[in-house]
Write a structure and sequence with these properties.
Structural class of chain B: mainly beta
Oligomer: heterodimer
Strand content of chain B: over 45%
Largest sheet of chain B: 6 strands, mixed
Structural class of chain A: mainly beta
Largest sheet of chain A: 7 strands, mixed
Number of helices of chain A: 0
Helix content of chain B: under 10%
Number of strands of chain B: 10
Distance between the termini of chain A: 36 Å
Radius of gyration of chain B: 13 Å
Order of helices and strands of chain A: EEEEEEEEEEE
Number of strands of chain A: 11
């Protein structure tokens, strides 16, 4: 059963702590993406990666970091430098040859207090 | 990457066609237009995409204007389960992907 998994679904952290959100895909997709969604708003791109060991900043990369050591995995770290980390985080993947429709995971809702 | 703009909300009667517009006036020649929908607190679901020609699949139809500055997603017979937020998106070669704020479609009985 192919797809994208994100864990955990809900995550709670204290202010000042770094936290890493997991994203795994078994679709054999080359490209992966991280988005942030705030209540009542659209998706904003944080980082994206088209190939292993390479990634680019999106529109709101400050306070976040990523790694892409394996094709299947694209973890996102929310650092203590991110001023407003509480949000819904979505991971997606796509192919890079042909049409590039994205397949999304179920999301992780992060709450920082 | 093109900036997309959509109306904030729309209503549609059950069984009627829902026509959702998107403006992408800065889209470049090699950027596809994609449509997704998101039901509350879930990940968005891909619906359809196109480059220049109109497209149809089992879920919807996509009409792209000749100048490619706008497009319309058509749900031919809307049901209550089509109530969701619909996003228009552009993407160049699996690179930087831009989503608009989406249109909240409410299908009413």
């Amino acid at each position: 059963d192919g797809g994208i998994t994100q864990s955990p679904k809900y995550l709670f952290r204290k202010e000042g702590q770094n936290v890493t959100l997991s994203c795994e895909q078994n679709l054999n997709h080359d490209a992966m993406y991280w988005y942030r969604q705030d209540p009542g708003q659209g998706l904003r791109l944080i980082y994206y990666s088209q190939i292993v060991n390479d990634f680019q900043k999106g529109d709101i990369a400050e306070g976040y970091s990523v790694s892409r050591e394996k094709k299947e995995s694209f973890p996102l770290t929310v650092t203590s430098a991110q001023k407003n980390p509480t949000a819904f985080y979505l991971c997606a993947s796509s192919i890079i040859d042909g049409s590039y429709e994205q397949y999304f995971g179920p999301g992780t809702r992060l709450t920082v207090t | 990457d093109a900036k997309t703009t959509q109306p904030t909300s729309m209503d549609c009667a059950e069984g009627r066609a829902a026509n959702l517009p998107c403006n992408h006036s800065t889209i470049s020649g090699n950027e596809y237009v994609y449509w997704y929908r998101q039901i509350h607190s879930q990940g968005p679901q891909y619906i359809i995409h196109g480059l220049k020609n109109n497209e149809t699949n089992e879920m919807a139809s996509l009409i792209i204007t000749e100048d490619r500055k706008s497009s319309t997603l058509i749900l031919p017979h809307a049901t209550l389960r089509d109530t969701a937020v619909y996003y228009c998106n552009s993407n160049t070669n699996a690179g930087k992907s831009t989503f608009g704020d989406g249109t909240t479609l409410t299908v009413k009985p």
